[in-house]
Amino acid sequence: MPDDKSSPMGLFKKYLANKRIFKNREVLRHNYRPQILPHRKPQIDELASILAPALTNETPSNILIYGKTGTGKTASVHYVGAELENASSLSATKCRVVHLNCEVIDTQYRVLAQIANSLDDLDAHPSDSARNLIPMTGWPTDQVYAELKKQLENSGGVVVIVLDEIDKLVKKSGDDTLYNLTRINSDLRLAKVSIIGISNDLRFTDFLDPRVLSSLSEEEIVFPPYNAPQLCDILQQRADLAFIDGVLDGAVIPLCAALAAQEHGDARRALDLLRVSGELADRENGDRVTEKHVRMAQEKIETDSMVECISTLPTQSKVVLYAMLILERMGKRIFTSGEVTVVYREIARIIDLDVLTHRRITDLISELNMLGVINTRVVSRGRYGRTKEMWFDAATSKIEEVVTRDPRLDDERLKQLDINRLRVMLR
């Protein structure tokens, strides 16, 4: 082991010695809020026009915002919200914006408590110590709602509540939270509430009671995906702040933009590609970011997301996937759902796992296809009917490594799997 104790920075010295690539890589993170949002002016202006009545102490319409991941929805709402709060400091009406991420805060109790506690924090004097007005568990929901109304009345003015990933809240907890929030103005005298819901899922409204949907979607704004030239503009804006001048080859930004445009115009994907490309060049102690680094970054990001996806699968899905790996090991590049079922049942028998029906196995295969772990197609076998064929798109060594981390599949008994017997069974 090398002795790095002579340097105060020890092991990390060589990584910090020369900044050849980045000036500030943080501007390439998803949570960075730029002052200017390229190609979102129409949506920002529409959002501002809907919220403008708040500055004259009128209740703005509720808004539903739709769009795929990475289309600038959250960044635009943060920007307009900050502008609204700034403008209200010059007007007679107090306007506050409370942002909630419903992937984390996903029950009625927690949503109501978080809004009340956020307002309490905004109204607190800077010298006051931090506190929670409402505990995050333990009270009856009616009491939490009553405390929220009291807090709103004490604060006065207009409060805009932003429910980011609102679909996650509805799918987990139903629409009771939205029902109460969309009707809260009828219980208030000194305060007014407007709701902005943000969703990647255009179909989540199918889960809503028509009365809730009518109240919530008084206005709707759709954020379209970015195209490749628009993504180039976004990346160039960030690259000017993130990278040392001259380190990016001319092809890097267009390639990152083109690859992300194929992924439904996702600006987050484009930023990840650019950042990881720079990090790979940096780790090589290089002084240029090239097209080669973008290709490497794409492979790394896809591998990392695949590993995370596979590692969180239930055991039955991993066993189905392992059966496919066995088939590929047997030399089959393309295999059918029937063949997967035969191998799956043999594995399940060896490790004492409950055996699923063929129908359920087919459902799990469809889920693996939807997640991008495998590719499938339905083919006709004439009078023998139709069958589903599947195959792996990329090298399977990493997939097998992740699958066999499951204790059920890291089993000595699987060494008993007789490949020759399987060949006979599959004839």
TrEMBL record:
Annotated ranges, domain AAA+ ATPase: 59-227
**UniProt-listed SUPFAM superfamilies:** P-loop containing nucleoside triphosphate hydrolases, Winged helix' DNA-binding domain
The superkingdom of the source organism is Archaea
Which part of the chain is the Cdc6 C-terminal domain? 321-403
Question: Which molecular-function annotations from GO does this UniProt entry contain?
Answer: ATP binding
In its UniProt record, which GO terms are filed under biological process? Answer: DNA replication
Q: Does the keyword DNA damage apply?
A: no
Q: Which residues bind ATP?
A: T71, G72, K73, T74, A75, Y226, R238
Q: Which UniProt keywords apply?
A: ATP-binding, DNA replication, Nucleotide-binding
Record's protein name:
ORC1-type DNA replication protein
